[in-house]
Structure formats: structure tokens, C-alpha cells
Amino acid sequence: MPGQKSLTVLGIESSCDDTAVAVLRGRRILSNIVSSQDAIHGPYGGIVPELASRQHIQNALPVLNAALEQADITLNAIDGIAVTAGPGLVGSLLVGVSLAKSLAFAKNLPFIGINHLEGHLLAVQLEHEVDFPFLCVLVSGGHTSLYLARDWGHYQRLGATRDDAAGEAFDKGAKMLGLGYPGGRIIDELAKAGRRDAIRFPRARIKKARYDFSYSGLKTALRQFLASPERERHTPADIAASYQEAVVDTVVDTTIRAAHDLNIRRVVVSGGVSANSRLRQYMTEAGEQNDFRAFFPPLKLCTDNAAMIAFAGAWRLAAGQRSGLDLNASAVLPLENA
Q: For a disulfide at 146, which of 103, 158, 164, 195, Cβ 3.0-4.6 Å?
């Protein structure tokens, strides 16, 4: 990691529905507190942006205090602050950015705005030192993208979803199946009892954009299947397993294609969907068969968390990078050469 000084960094993450604060010293996580809003959004089967931002306002200071207490540290011992500045739900982002700026101003601390996707891309480094260059496939509720990470801060987007993200496909699929929210975890668990080849759901292949993804057609196919007489001939577990396989298959297939084309031997899978057990199994097996090694963050760092934001901020702060107090949240924030 660039920079020799081991900084103690406070990380703040509020890009979607999780309020998170962490304290990081070097690669050592002193605390990593996440307050989930699953119970609030569950009845709606998805995130309600206004409810999310209001809950962040209520959670921000209690989560901050809990992180400092768990780390057994005060703000006076913090060297700098890193906060997610985008992309995400702008109302949610503004809460975290406002908190970070307030703390930086009050304590005269350097702070840096971090791209949420860089946090996910680098999260694996907290457990494995993965050498550059490597491919990174970011799969979450809001993003399904493929990046070539050339070096610290130098990222090239190779492809992305044309419509819906893989995690969103899981959540909406679970909603159609009446399974509850968040859907990814429920489908993953139910699919373990089902047959992956019971139903052949479609896989989108975009010929003119070899590394792009698409999941809207898959969701439509599931809706049509559930409305057909064919549904009665299959168990919920078989439907879940077959649907999950279609989602995972496109992620793995596209990653294999890019690894071959670019002659890359290291692949990082990150984001909330990287916790999916079938994706981990399938990508690991694909790596063994296609001459690359697959790396995954630990489960606690797959979903949104502030430790990854603190880590992404640490190397930038050590390199002398700073954000001004005019930093604003951005719902759309490109990662390339961030």
C-alpha cells in the first residue's frame, strides 16, 4: 500500500441503507459497526430512499460513538477521516458527508471523499494482499461491473450492467417468489436444497459489449414462469436454485472471458453478492479450470461497511490527498482513475 505511515483512520459509509462507522489502523480493524435497516425496508421488498436517509440521521451519532467505544479511542487520536461521497442514494450520502465534514472542521482533521466502488474493490486487501493488476467484478444490489485494477487509484471499467444489478435481480426474484427481504440471502439458502438444472432460465449475452451484463430479461422470464402452469411442477427450492444459477452464470462467464482476453491471473469478487455461496464456489472452480485465482473479501466485508472506506481513504490520506469542506455527495460518481 502506498505510503509508509500507518494512519488511524475513521471511516464513514452511508451510501444506501446501512449506517456504518469504522476505525482502522493500518490494515488492522479496531472497530467496524454497521446498523442495518432491513426491518424498515422489508415490508416494501426494497429500499425506500426517503426512509433510508431519515434513518441515517437517527443512526449516525450512535453508530459513531459505538465505533469509537469499541476501538477504545477518542477523536483526538484519529489521524484522518474517509467518507463515502458516491455513488449511491444522494439523501443517504449527504448524511455521511455532512457528519465527516463536521468532524473534520471541529477537530481540524484531514478528510477525503471516497468512491464507494473503490471501497469494495480494495476490501479484499484487508485480508489478502492481492498484487496488481487484477480483475475485479463488483456485484451488489446497485452495481454489477467489471474493472481492470492496474494499480492503486488506476481502474478501468471494462463493462457494467445495461439495466438491473445482480443483487437487485435477487431481491426482486425473492419478492416475486414471496420469500421476503433481503432476497439474496434467502434465495442462497433455499437454493441449497434445489436442483440448479431444474429450469433453464435465460442468460443475457451482449455480443457488441463482451463484458456487459443484463438482468431485466431474467426477471421477466421468472415472472412469466411463475404465472405459467409449469410452476406447479417444481418446488420453490428448484426455482430458487435455477434462478440463482442464471444470475451467477453470467457473472462467472463474463469474468472468464475477460481474464482470457487480458491474460489476467488474479480475480477479485466483491460487493454484497460476493457473499453468495454459489458464486464463491462457481468462481473458485472457474479459476482452477481457467488458470486464475479467485479472491473474496471475508463475509463481514462483502456488504456495505466503513472499514473498506477507511482503508481506501488511508492510502490516499498517506499520499497527501485531501477533500475540501465544499465536498458534495454525488449519486453518480465514476470510478475510473478515481
A: 158
Give the integer Cα–Cα distance in Å for 215 and 247: 8
Is-above-0.90 flag for pTM?
yes
Task: Give the right CATH number for 8-122+302-318 from 3.30.420.40, 3.30.70.20, 3.40.50.10310, 3.40.50.10090.
Answer: 3.30.420.40
Residues 1, 26: Cα–Cα separation, whole Å: 10
Q: What is the pLDDT of residues 106-148, one digit of tens each?
A: 999 999 999 999 999 999 999 989 999 999 999 998 899 999 9
Compute the distance between CA of residue 273 and CA of residue 160 in angstroms, rounded to an integer. 15
Maximum distance among all Cα pairs of the chain, rounded to whole angstroms = 65
- Residue spans of the domains in the chain: they are 8-122+302-318, 131-296
302, three cell numbers: 462483502
Distance CA 75, CA 270 (A): 30
pLDDT tens string 189-214: 999 999 999 999 999 988 888 999 99
Cα separation values, 280 from 135, 161, 251, Å: 15, 20, 11
The answer to whether residues 47 and 89 touch, using CB atoms and an 8 Å cutoff, is: yes
Q: What is the H or E stretch that residue 287 is in? A: helix 277-290
Phi first, then psi, for residue 201 (nearest 5°) are -80, 150
List beta partners, residue 226.
Answer: none
**Rounded-to-integer distance, Cα 338 and Cα 319, Å:** 14
Minimal CA–CA distance to 37: which of 22, 56, 12?
56
Backbone angles phi and psi of 248, in degrees to 5: -65, -40
CATH superfamily name and code, 131-296: ATPase, nucleotide binding domain (3.30.420.40)
